[in-house]
Amino acid sequence: MTQTIVETAPAKINLALHVRARRADGYHELETLFAFLQDGDELRFTPGAPTFEIEGPFAAALSGEGDNLVLRAARGFAEAFGLASEGAWVLEKNLPVASGIGGGSADAAAALRLLARVRGVALDDPRLFAVADALGSDVPACLLGRAALGTGRGEKLEPLGDLGAIPVLLVNPGIAVSTGPVFKAWDGVDRGPIPAGTTIDRARAGRNDLEAPARTIAPGIGDVLDRLAATGPVLARMSGSGATCFALYENDEQRSAAANTIRTAQPGWWCLESRLA
Ligand code: C5P
């Protein structure tokens, strides 16, 4: 009997993202506070003949893409562990694509966690993290899947204490933004480290240094941030290289009221009501 295995790929947000330096290898030295939500994409795997299907609300945005990160993750896993990883994959794409909340990185990490489970590999196996690292800067953080301070390209991780199920609203104005050009548009000014303190205090005292360059590429981000700020959140900020922005609230009622206000004003925008994982 073949069994289908399911793994969620939670959305990632950057509570703060400080760009400290341009590196000779084309990447940037970062300091970032990663956090994860209770909602995300879903990945299903059935051992057997190799197929790959994408379904869900954002499937169309990915359909033209040749080599999905899920399949690259499966190949990386097979090479690193000498274990076959063939099977039928179904990716339910619930999160907008190229939007600063993990996306392909979260899916790749979910594929690695799923295959590790199937093949009896420990989730903290350093070889699993090496595969993740080779797939992308955010994949190790997504593999860890819990709040962490990321340094280097974002791949050096230091787990942080549990943040609790803080209510979160995600808003995307329907603009896809590529990460590379946003980093390229950064002005090269080091504005300093994330201050010390509790994680939420650090987040509030921090910044997203990619916000200004992302806004030059996608000015609509400013409108999202203004609308979120007007709903009285604990914190409102762009995530990653954008264009998705998030807001944290004191309670679910405030978050839902904010979501309703934004949905009414901008019915075409994507809004997700969730909580920190
Ligand atoms: O690592 P990943 O392939 O996800 O990164 C995508 C692009 O984002 C890189 O090619 C690079 O242009 C940029 N990037 C960067 N510095 C980082 C992470 C990503 O410049 N720390």
TrEMBL record:
Keywords: ATP-binding, Isoprene biosynthesis, Kinase, Nucleotide-binding, Transferase. Residues 206-263 form the GHMP kinase C-terminal domain. ATP binds at residues 96-106. Pathway: Isoprenoid biosynthesis; isopentenyl diphosphate biosynthesis via DXP pathway; isopentenyl diphosphate from 1-deoxy-D-xylulose 5-phosphate: step 3/6. InterPro entries: GHMP_kinase_C_dom, GHMP_kinase_C_sf, GHMP_kinase_N_dom, IspE, Ribosomal_Su5_D2-typ_SF, Ribsml_uS5_D2-typ_fold_subgr. It catalyses: 4-CDP-2-C-methyl-D-erythritol + ATP = 4-CDP-2-C-methyl-D-erythritol 2-phosphate + ADP + H(+). Pfam families: GHMP_kinases_C (PF08544), GHMP_kinases_N (PF00288). It is an enzyme of class 2 (transferase). Its EC number is 2.7.1.148. The active site is at 12, 138. GO terms for molecular function: 4-(cytidine 5'-diphospho)-2-C-methyl-D-erythritol kinase activity; ATP binding. It comes from the Bacteria. Coiled coil: none annotated. SUPFAM superfamilies: GHMP Kinase, C-terminal domain, Ribosomal protein S5 domain 2-like. One of its GO terms (biological process) is isopentenyl diphosphate biosynthetic process, methylerythritol 4-phosphate pathway. Residues 68-145 form the GHMP kinase N-terminal domain. Belongs to the GHMP kinase family. IspE subfamily. Catalyzes the phosphorylation of the position 2 hydroxy group of 4-diphosphocytidyl-2C-methyl-D-erythritol. This is 4-diphosphocytidyl-2-C-methyl-D-erythritol kinase. It comes from Sphingomonas populi.
